[in-house]
Each structure stands twice: as C-alpha cells, then as structure tokens.
Amino acid sequence: MTDPYQVLGVSRDATEEQIKEAYKALARKYHPDNYANSPLADVATEKMQEVNAAYDQIMAERRTGQSSAGSAGQGYTGGSAEYADIRRMIQQGRQVEAEELLDGIPADRRSAEWHFLKGTIYYNRGWLDNARQEIGLACQIDPNNPEYRAALSQMMWQRGGGFGAPGSQPYRAAPTGGLNACNCCSDLICADCCCECMGGDLIPCC
Amino acid sequence: MFGYIKPCRAELKVKEFEAYRGVYCGLCRRIGKEYGLLARCTLSYDYAFLALLQLTVQKAECAFTACRCIAHPTRKRCCLKDTDALSFTAAAAMLMLSQKAKDRKRDDGIRGRFFAGVTGPYFRRLHKKAAARFPKLAEHCEKIMPMQWEAEAKPDCTPDEAAHPTADTLGKILSELSEDETERRILYRLGYCMGRWIYFMDALDDLETDKKRDRFNPLLLRFGTDEEKCRDYAVELLHQSDAEAAAAYELLDAGNFSPVLENIIYLGMKQEQNRLLDRKKECRA
Predict the structure, then answer these.
(1) In this complex, is the C-beta atom of A29 within 8 Å of any C-beta atom belonging to chain B?
(2) Distance separating alpha carbons of residues A105 and A42, to the nearest angstrom
(3) What is the mean pLDDT of chain B?
(4) Where on the phi/psi map is residue B274: left (φ > 0), alpha (ψ -120 to 50), or beta?
C-alpha cells in the first residue's frame, strides 16, 4: 500500500492540525458533489476512499483505537422502472447503447426522466450545452425532482463562473479578501465602528 | 491551437514563473532541433501547457540550465535541459499547425489561399516528419479538419457539435500522455473540456469578422446576428467548459509543476476570457 502521508501530501512529522487541514482540503477536492453525474465520478470516489483510508490509518497510528471516517460518496438513486436498464447502462459507461435505447422511445412518450438521461449522456460525452438544455427540459416538466434540480443547479453554477459543486468555496480561487495594504485601514475603522456600537472603542482617536 | 492557454502571471511565484518560462524555452529549443529554426517561430503558449502537463503526468526528471537564445540575446535565461520527453509536445505542435494551415486554405479569401499555397509544402514536410515519429498522434490530428467540415456543413449544427472535433482531438492527444487506463480517461476529459474552451474562445474572438465575411460561426448560427446574446452565451459555455476541465484536472496526481497548471486552469483561463471580452468592449466603444 502507498504511504498514507504521501497520499495526504504531508510530511511524517506534520502536526495533527496540519494533517486534518490536508485531509479537509482533499475531501473538499474529491467531494462527490463536485462529480455528481460526471463520467469520472468513479475515479473521484476511488480517490476519496484512498484519502479516507490514509487519514484513518494515520489517525489510528497516532491515537491507537480511534479513527474517524469521512463521508464517502453516494450516488443518486431513484427513477422509474422503465428507465432502470438505461440508467444502469449509463453508469457502466455503455453510452452508445443507452442512447440508442433512449432514441428508440417515441417522442410523445418522452418524460422528464427521458430528458434527464439524455442530458446525462450528452454530459458524459462532453456536450455540455446540449446537456444543459435537456436537463433544463427535465426540470421544466418535473420541477420538484431533486435529482434533476441538483444537476441543473450545478450546471448553472458552473456557467456563472463557479468551480465544483454549487455554493462550494472554490478549492483554489484568486485571493480576493484578506488583509493587505489597501484594505487594512478600512478594516480597522470598520472594527472600530463595531466596537463603538457596542459601547467599546478600538481606536481611541476616531 | 491558438495561444489562449496562459498562466495568470501576477498570481505566479517567481520560481513558478521561471519554471514555466524555462519549459517554454526548452520546448522552443527542442522544436528548433527537430524541425528547424522557422518552425520555432510558430510555437504558442498552449504547447507550454501541454509540455508541463506531460512532465507532470509522466513524472519526468527535470533539470534547468541558464542559456541564451536568439529571441533574447542579451541575458541568459532559465531553460529546461533538453529531454526526449519534449519530443511528443513538439510533434503535437507541428501536427496541429499543419492542420490549422489546411483550414486557412479553405476559409480565407484569395490572399489567404495564396499564402496557404506558398506555405503548404513546408507545413506538409513538418507534418510528415512529426507523423513519422508519432504515427498515432498524427492519426488523431488528421481527423480534425474533415470532422470539422462535416459538422459545419450541417444546417442545424449546435455549438456542441461544432466544438466536438477540436475537443475530441485535444482529448485524444492528452490521453496519449499516459499508459494507465484511468489516467487516460481523466486526461481525455481534461483535453475534451479544454478543447471546447479553446474552440469557443476562438469563436467568440472571430465573432465580428465571421459576421462580416459570412463565415461559419456556431454562435451566429444559434443567435442570428444578435452579438450581445452571442457574447453572453459564449461566456456561459466558456465557464462551464473551464469548470469541467478543472474537475477532471483535480483527479490527476500532483507534481512539481502543479502550482503552474492550477494557475492556468483556475486563473489563467478566466483571465484570458476576461481580456478577450474587454478587448471586444473597447472595440465597440
């Protein structure tokens, strides 16, 4: 087995704090939400399991008997029996067969799920725009389905310039906030105002 | 490819920037060595990314030296020591170059065709040389233009269909970097999404000229002549492709050049996108 420290990217003499930090960063990176419906979801799950195992092993080595597990990915399940076979095919990566079966269903019998599955196939192929349209249609027909809504909201999040799952802190984003020469005075003044509201005073002269 | 894939320099550490430039330099020299001085002048930033990715995926040993070159004769620069690993990227650059020349021959007017006629034999020679070294790579690249023409001939060609040839070719090129099946899948997806991004950047960049000359453009086909709508939609497509490329990238093992690659995917591509939009705005104003 590979070195668990290497998996987490920390040195052997890292503190527990650093290990947790590294683990959290990796868990965020490989989080199943980031790869929902993705053709690479299995790879992400594998990586996540590797990271979990490494973290558990280190923690067990350091504190005998104690271990904590991260959340492993769980795919969405559900959908009707009619499309169960097609769903399975998509999950197994048999996109071409799945699409043939889907296309064989006459236009007047195409439900929300049909559009969702069609969208998933487009997505796996990398045709992200067609995928968005099909999944948007699925949501229009069945607006209360959480599976369709989740897929659409991730796409809309990404199209708005986000990375990963909707609302997630970008794993690596351009530093925008933080203390720097430009904003430190204004931050201090803000802090002072807050203190004054509460009756205290941070900067006595203003 | 078109030189859109660049790092955001302001966010690079000095050592990372030196490494990036060093790899670019090393690649340029390699092309000079294998394909001659003239071919060196055609190198674009995209291939520096490909070289960095290759060195990372193949976990190649890298050493840097200080050297001088014709483009910068006054000062010695940091340069990647010549390694055979760069041969692949050099070949990919040459193969894509000759494909692009093929496209220009069809697209442009008399002047373009004249230019293509003059340079054609030269590009064909480059292509032959590269294809002899990497026949599989050449096979992937040769399909791109016929696929593109076929897609463009369809009257109801969607943006996805139009982007597919470029995206698919880049995906196949990237997947050649690894022998491991899982890694190949990741690389294909990364290449596919980056190829899409490049294609839509180019489509957005050429929007006005394509409209004026009545050339094929997937955005114009979808939205008619409403440029504002075309631009907004292109931005959405670009964002989505970039986000999917990033998701695929994160599944690759990290290496020494990871900070630079991350910079390119998370910041550089967004920056390039914004620059293009700003440039368009200035043109209109």
Answers:
(1) yes
(2) 29
(3) 88
(4) alpha
**The pLDDT of residue A74:** 37
Domains in chain A (CATH in brackets) are 4-62 (1.10.287.110), 81-159 (1.25.40.10)
Longest dimension (CA), chain B: 55
Whether A34 sits inside 8 A of B158 (CB atoms) is no
pLDDT tens-digit profile of B189-223?
Answer: 999 999 999 999 999 999 888 888 888 899 988 88
Test A129 with B193 for CB contact under 8 angstroms.
no
Interface test with B, best of A49, A127, A130, A153 (most B CBs within 10 A): A127
Q: Scanning the structure block, which residue is given the tokens 């909201």?
A: A153
> How far apart are alpha carbons B252 and B182 in whole angstroms?
10
CA distance B48 to chain A (A): 22
Nearest to A43 among B251, B262, B267 (CB): B251
Cβ–Cβ under 8 Å, residues B226 and B217 = no
| d(CA A30, nearest CA chain B) in Å | 8
- How many CA within 13 A on the CB side of residue A126? 30
Please report residues of B whose CB lies closer than 8 A to that of A44: 251
The reply to whether residue A160 touches residue B239, judged by beta carbons under 8 angstroms, is yes
pLDDT digits (tens, 9 = 90+) for B55-112: 999 988 888 888 887 777 777 888 888 888 899 999 999 999 888 877 777 666 677 7
Q: Taking the CA atoms of B27, B28, B33 and B34 in sequence, report the sign of the dihedral they define.
A: positive
Please write the tens of the pLDDT for every residue from A54-111.
888 888 877 764 433 333 333 444 567 778 888 888 888 888 889 988 998 888 888 8
Give the C-alpha separation, B29 to B93, whole Å: 13
Q: Are A129 and B254 inside 8 Å of each other by CB?
A: no
Q: Torsions phi, psi of B64, nearest 5?
A: -115, 150
In order, the DSSP letters of B236-275 are: HHHHHHHHHHHHHHTTSPP-TTHHHHHIIIIIIHHHHHHH
pLDDT of B172 reads 95
**Intervals of chain A under pLDDT 70:** 1, 64-79, 168-206
Which residue among B160, B250, B262 sits closest to A129, beta carbon to beta carbon? B160
Q: Which of B196, B240, B247 sits opposite A35 (nearest CB)?
A: B247
Q: What ipTM did this prediction achieve? A: 0.73
